[in-house]
Design a protein that fits this description.
The structure is a single chain. This protein folds into three domains: 4-131, no CATH class; 139-381, 3-Layer(aba) Sandwich (Rossmann fold), CATH 3.40.50.150; 389-530, no CATH class. A nine-stranded mixed β-sheet has the order 5-4-3-6-7-9-8-10-11, sandwiched between helices. Strands 1-2 form a two-stranded antiparallel ribbon. It has a two-stranded antiparallel sheet with strand order 12-15. The protein is α/β, with parallel strands linked by helices and 546 residues long. It has helices at residues 4-11, 15-24, 43-53, 61-73, 77-89, 101-113, 116-134, 142-152, 168-172, 188-200, 259-269, 292-300, 366-369, 378-381, 389-410, 431-436, 456-463, 466-471, 493-533, and strands at 33-34, 39-40, 157-161, 178-185, 206-210, 224-229, 271-281, 304-309, 323-328, 339-344, 361-365, 428-430, 440-443, 446-449, 487-489. Helix 1 crosses helix 2 (15-24), helix 4 (61-73) crosses helix 5 (77-89) and helix 4 (61-73) runs antiparallel to helix 6. The N and C termini lie far apart (83 Å).
Length: 546
């Protein structure tokens, strides 16, 4: 069943238009539930009516399914996907019961064009985009999953994740030589999704348990060849008082403020001889005074292999940078590491390559790490390489001049429109309605359309309108990147594409402007540094010099 607001989203009109249809058309579907103030209508009847009246736009089966799931489950999309996943896998219906006929028919249409595992992963992608915006659930971002896959590789044997969420990290490290995937998480709904995903995947068998891995370790005898973990950050109460004599604290009992190092030791405890642990930790875990003793033992025993500083933007629920720590349990005496590889990727594009350049790596002897505070921050040990001032400055100067010549040609020609303010006269639709309907999603920091009736460049361009900027700016002048208050004028798809093409050209102009600004800033700083340290000198042959 759908509400009047959802009918408006289906048809691409305002809620007022739906109210008018109900008053003016005797054959408009009658409510099948709800209340007088909030009636509910049959989705299939509404779609048939819209088709017969030639109103609105065609809705893809996947969008229709997502909208129906929203209607049936509200904000609990974890339960919604578990419901659909159970149906696709052929499991017996759980607490939520049988899938309603409307949902079942939408699922049947989609399964005709793609496999059940692919459909479920497509819905998981929508789910990740949704919870990534809200931070409502502890799920690893696609960027972070990519980083784990890159640095951990695939498991040669068993893989374990004590905070597995929906199983993304386990699936990322599963390979042809992986024998078992094991996970645990406190959230029952996320565990259901992890079980479904690992069941759909054409990979090794999986065992996923419910429970808090620190307080209630369900797998005390497990020793895995690869342990991956993206733990919750800074837990104020992780159960220390109840775990003081726990055998997992091989490096010392973690202080109350060091839940991060409790997770690290939990992971290491479950690592088999010769196996590895890859875990995300906040930058402060590398230098906090309270964790010094544990860090010292970690280094002294030769267990720490590397620490990689990732660019900002890898976490799903915050903008803090993250560190990837890699540990290895020695397979025999004498197998300990002799130096720790420090990698600093903080200046890299978070969506770019993850392989470090030579000047982003430092192999630090253990003795150099065991000083005073045992600081394990990569930036402490990696310094920027000294530039070749004359050659680099000459190349930057040439590139800036070339880019400036090209910029003017990038600005599109724009004739006069129908007058300032005329866009406000068009019917507008709330972007929040489009998001809730599954027609708009985000990938990283980018907003995208998931419908062939909404142009992505048109959407992005109007999100930057003065009106939307004002709506997203607080009284103190702080701008919030918030889609909830944004609105779009309603245009047909051909008009949208014309606007979208121009917005795309303007976006390219802005991108190039930023590149020129960065190059110009780099050239100026290089010139100042070179002139003041003797690497560069004034050009006495310049025209105009007297």
């Amino acid at each position: 069943m759908v509400t009047a607001a959802q009918i408006a989203r289906l048809a691409g009109v305002t809620r007022a238009a739906v109210a008018n249809w109900r008053r003016r058309h005797d054959n408009f579907p009658t409510p099948v539930g709800g209340t007088a103030a909030g009636p509910l209508f049959s989705l299939s009847e509404v779609e048939n009516w819209l088709t017969g009246q030639r109103k609105g736009r065609e809705t893809s089966p996947e969008v229709a399914l997502w909208q129906s799931l929203r209607t049936a489950h509200g904000d609990d999309m974890t339960a919604a996907l578990a419901h659909i996943g159970s149906t696709l896998s052929g499991d017996e219906p759980g607490e939520s019961g049988e899938v309603p006929d409307e949902l079942s028919s939408a699922v049947d249409r989609l399964v005709e064009e793609r496999s059940a595992p692919q459909l479920f992963e497509d819905l998981i992608s929508r789910y990740l985009a949704s919870v990534g915006r809200s931070g409502a659930q502890a799920v690893s971002s696609p960027r972070l999953v990519r980083a784990f896959a890159h640095f951990a590789g695939t498991a040669d044997g068993s893989a374990y994740d004590p905070t597995c969420g929906i199983g993304s990290l386990l699936l990322a490290v599963a390979g042809p030589r992986t024998t078992l995937l094991v996970g645990q998480d406190t959230h029952t709904g996320l565990v259901r999704l992890a079980r479904l995903r690992t069941g759909f995947a054409d990979g090794p068998p999986a065992q996923v348990e419910v429970g808090d891995s620190l307080r209630d370790d369900r797998l005390p005898g497990l020793r895995a060849q690869l342990v991956v973990c993206d733990p919750p950050l800074g837990q104020p109460d992780w159960g220390r008082e109840d775990l003081l004599l726990d055998p997992r604290w091989e490096l010392g009992v973690p202080p109350r403020a060091e839940s991060d190092l409790a997770w690290l030791q939990h992971c290491y405890f479950h690592t088999a001889p010769g196996g590895r642990t890859i875990i995300t930790l906040p930058p402060s875990a590398a230098y906090r005074k309270s964790g010094r003793r544990i860090r010292s033992e970690l280094v002294r025993r030769g267990l720490l292999v590397s620490v990689t500083a990732l660019p900002a933007g890898f976490a799903s629920s915050h903008s803090m940078p993250l560190l990837l720590w890699e540990l290895r349990r020695p397979s025999m005496p004498g197998d300990e590491v002799r130096s720790v590889r420090m990698v600093d990727l903080t200046a890299n594009d978070p969506d770019g390559p993850l392989d470090p350049a030579p000047n982003q790596i430092a192999d630090v002897p253990l003795i150099n790490l065991l000083r005073d505070d045992v600081d394990l921050s990569p930036t402490t040990y990696i310094t920027a390489a000294q530039p070749d001032y004359p050659d680099e400055y000459a190349e930057l100067r040439r590139a800036v001049r070339e880019q400036l010549r090209e910029l003017a040609a990038l600005l599109p020609t724009l004739p006069a429109g129908s007058g300032a303010g005329t866009m406000d006269e068009l019917n507008a639709i709330d972007v929040s309605d489009l998001v809730q309907a599954g027609l708009v999603a985000t990938e990283g920091s980018e907003t995208i359309s998931t419908s062939d009736q909404l142009d992505t460049d048109y959407l992005r361009g109007f999100l930057r309108s003065a009106g939307n900027t004002r709506r997203n700016t607080s009284s103190t002048g702080t701008h919030r990147a918030d889609l909830r208050g944004a609105q779009l004028p309603q245009m047909d798809i051909d008009q949208q594409r014309r606007y979208g093409e121009v917005f795309r050209e303007l976006g390219e102009f802005e991108r190039r402007i930023k590149e020129v600004a960065k190059m110009s800033d780099r050239a100026a700083r290089l010139a100042y540094d070179g002139l003041t340290n003797g690497a560069l000198a004034p050009d006495v042959t310049r025209e105009g010099d007297k």
